[in-house]
């Protein structure tokens, strides 16, 4: 292990001692209880098994065999979740063959950020994570389960399910993905059509044709955004059956992997003092997830989500931990939006197995961690396939299948990970440098102030952005309006940058990986609505963003800056932000939410 990673791990262990200790004590008390069907009153048990076939009732009550709770995020709005439609029946069938029963404990909401981008519904997106966690908790609160299977893939769904699972951390738990859709048109072509549409060079019909060629079937979107970053991190944490992440929904191995998840969970449940998910997700496992994120230049959303996930397990991390860890973790992949390849090409070139092997072999991940697979984390450096109707795993090839997509640690794309912390007199923010050309790591330009993405888009349409500038898009944080992603700003800013102007964005909102090659200081904390200094910036202020050294400052005299008042959100804007498309139902979350760096958590 690299000494810096050991030091960061120990730092996290020390600051987490009180909360992690209390969490583990709660788990131990839950694990030591009599199983649900033997502990509960007869009326309670009768309700729980009323709809089951007689044979399953016998298994639970008389034979005391494992009963699995399934939490599913199935809906057919999300292409990634459509394959889950028939999973519960298949899971029940497999459970029966391995001496267990399975019940759908509950369903959780799953929204598609692709549908809600730039729409009012996007302001519910971040909060849907904690809603999903609560939904999972409601399902599992029936408390009659010996283990859990979690069905979910996309942006807020996996973090929400994992937070929910960690609040039932005494249960052995496995996550079941369903895989990416097949490759459509390449992402570069898609982006160019978007830019042409923004300039009026193609019409809406041409844009829809392009988008439909990219998003065209069942499975996750194939770019390396939050959904597919989720899958990479779940492999790194050992919470999948090894190699499950990027197998197509209708590949022959997918059904075999799902079957294996059910049988492996039953095996794990039956072990004496079975390792639960709460015990499994410890400080080392959180470090491994962070390392995988940095090594792949994954979604910046996980700088929020994994802080919340760690907190759910009693572990305290912040952006300084990510920043420091990046110094010891090389960037090993080049996947869109960092490069041009999609996740199917990434999988073909070696995929998660290749990355994890390189990280483990080069001291960038902890090898001594528990996983749902009996062989430990090195099981995740192997590739699954079906041969003669049997699921087998083979070693990932020694060399990359394509060095433009994935590389060995001895020849990385960059010596440090793809994410960086920015600090200065505005606050703390993060930037995804893996997608930004080095000549754009330093931007100094005057501020243009926007109180929402609509104002910036209007300025673009009116031709007011043809200059060097740094767009300050504020009142986009979790307290303001739920911290929507601002993807629609990428095409116009890309057009301005392509004309030779030096541009960047500073915002308390999110952009995930979609900022592309535009330098984007995002998740600014404290946010404007919490009195953050981003609300002090005035039109024309010179701002210097230096990703090379990790600084972001407004270049005004310190005494002037100190005396400046903070702008506040207008009552009209508050009203607009808080109503319509169900947003009023989430007002309590906006009031109670913690900062982005604290995980944008609504439940503490």
Structural description of this entry:
The chain folds into 2 domains: 3-33 and 65-182 and 217-395, no CATH class; 419-592, IlvD/EDD C-terminal domain-like (Glucose Oxidase, domain 1), CATH 3.50.30.80. β13 (542-546) and β14 form a beta hairpin. The chain has 604 residues and is of the alpha/beta class. The protein has helices spanning 3-31, 36-39, 42-49, 54-61, 87-97, 113-116, 125-140, 157-166, 187-198, 204-214, 226-236, 252-270, 277-280, 283-296, 302-312, 319-326, 343-349, 351-361, 453-461, 478-481, 490-498, 558-563, 571-578, 587-592; strands at residues 67-72, 101-107, 147-151, 173-176, 382-387, 390-395, 419-424, 427-432, 442-450, 469-473, 503-507, 520-525, 542-546, 551-554. α11 packs across α14 (283-296). It contains 24 helices and 14 strands.
Sequence-ordered SSE layout with sheet pairings:
Blueprint: H1 3-31, H2 36-39, H3 42-49, H4 54-61, E1 67-72, H5 87-97, E2 101-107, H6 113-116, H7 125-140, E3 147-151, H8 157-166, E4 173-176, H9 187-198, H10 204-214, H11 226-236, H12 252-270, H13 277-280, H14 283-296, H15 302-312, H16 319-326, H17 343-349, H18 351-361, E5 382-387, E6 390-395, E7 419-424, E8 427-432, E9 442-450, H19 453-461, E10 469-473, H20 478-481, H21 490-498, E11 503-507, E12 520-525, E13 542-546, E14 551-554, H22 558-563, H23 571-578, H24 587-592
EC number: 4.2.1.12
Enzyme class: lyase
Family: Belongs to the IlvD/Edd family.
């Amino acid at each position: 292990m690299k000494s810096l990673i050991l030091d960061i791990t120990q730092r996290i262990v020390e600051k987490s001692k009180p909360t992690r200790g209390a969490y583990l004590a709660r788990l131990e008390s839950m694990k030591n209880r009599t199983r649900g069907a033997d502990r509960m009153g007869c009326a309670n048990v009768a309700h729980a098994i009323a709809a089951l076939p007689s044979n399953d009732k016998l298994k639970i009550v008389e034979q005391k065999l494992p009963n699995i709770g399934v939490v599913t995020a199935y809906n057919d709005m999300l292409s990634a979740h459509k394959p889950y439609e028939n999973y519960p029946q298949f899971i029940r069938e497999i459970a029966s063959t391995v001496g267990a029963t399975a019940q759908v404990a509950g369903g959780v909401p799953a929204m598609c950020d692709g549908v809600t981008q730039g729409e009012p519904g996007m302001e519910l997106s971040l909060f849907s994570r904690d809603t999903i966690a609560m939904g999972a908790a409601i399902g599992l609160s029936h408390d009659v389960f010996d283990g859990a299977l979690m069905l979910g893939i996309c942006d807020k769904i996996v973090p929400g399910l994992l937070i929910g699972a960690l609040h039932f951390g005494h249960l052995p738990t496995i996550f079941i993905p369903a895989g990416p859709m097949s490759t459509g048109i390449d992402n570069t072509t898609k982006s160019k059509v978007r830019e042409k549409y923004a300039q009026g060079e193609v019409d809406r019909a041409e844009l829809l044709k392009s988008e439909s060629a990219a998003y065209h079937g069942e499975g996750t979107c194939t770019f390396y955004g939050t959904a597919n970053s989720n899958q990479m991190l779940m492999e790194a944490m050992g919470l999948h059956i090894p190699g499950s992440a990027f197998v197509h929904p209708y590949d022959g191995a997918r059904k075999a992997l799902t079957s294996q998840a059910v049988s492996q969970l039953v095996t794990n449940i039956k072990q004496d003092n079975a390792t639960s998910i709460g015990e499994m997700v410890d400080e080392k496992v959180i470090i491994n997830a962070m390392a995988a994120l940095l090594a792949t230049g994954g979604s910046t959303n996980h700088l929020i989500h994994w802080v919340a996930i760690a907190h759910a397990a009693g572990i305290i991390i912040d952006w300084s931990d990510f920043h420091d860890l990046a110094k010891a973790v090389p960037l090993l992949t080049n996947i869109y939006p960092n490069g041009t390849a999609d996740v199917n090409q990434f999988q073909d070139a070696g995929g998660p197995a290749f990355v994890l092997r390189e990280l483990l072999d080069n001291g960038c991940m902890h090898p001594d961690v528990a996983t749902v697979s009996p062989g430990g984390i090195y099981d995740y450096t192997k590739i699954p396939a079906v041969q003669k109707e049997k699921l087998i795993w083979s070693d990932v090839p020694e060399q990359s299948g394509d060095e433009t997509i994935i590389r060995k640690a001895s020849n990385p794309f960059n010596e440090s990970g793809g994410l960086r912390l920015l600090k200065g007199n505005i606050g703390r923010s993060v930037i995804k440098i893996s997608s930004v050309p080095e000549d754009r790591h330093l931007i100094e330009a005057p501020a243009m102030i926007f109180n929402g993405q609509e104002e910036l888009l209007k300025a673009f349409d009116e031709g007011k952005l043809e200059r060097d500038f740094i767009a300050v898009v504020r009142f986009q944080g979790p307290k303001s309006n739920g911290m929507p992603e601002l993807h629609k700003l990428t095409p116009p800013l890309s057009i301005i940058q392509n004309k030779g102007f030096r541009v960047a964005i500073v915002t308390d909102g999110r952009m995930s990986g979609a900022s592309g090659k535009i330098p984007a200081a995002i998740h600014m904390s404290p946010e404007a609505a919490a009195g953050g200094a981003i609300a002090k910036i005035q039109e024309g202020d010179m701002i210097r963003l230096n990703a090379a050294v990790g600084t972001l400052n407004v270049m005004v005299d310190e005494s002037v800056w100190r005396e400046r008042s903070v702008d506040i959100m207008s009552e009209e804007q508050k009203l607009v932000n808080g109503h319509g498309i169900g947003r009023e139902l989430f007002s309590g979350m906006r009031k109670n939410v913690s900062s982005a760096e604290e995980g944008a958590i609504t439940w503490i």
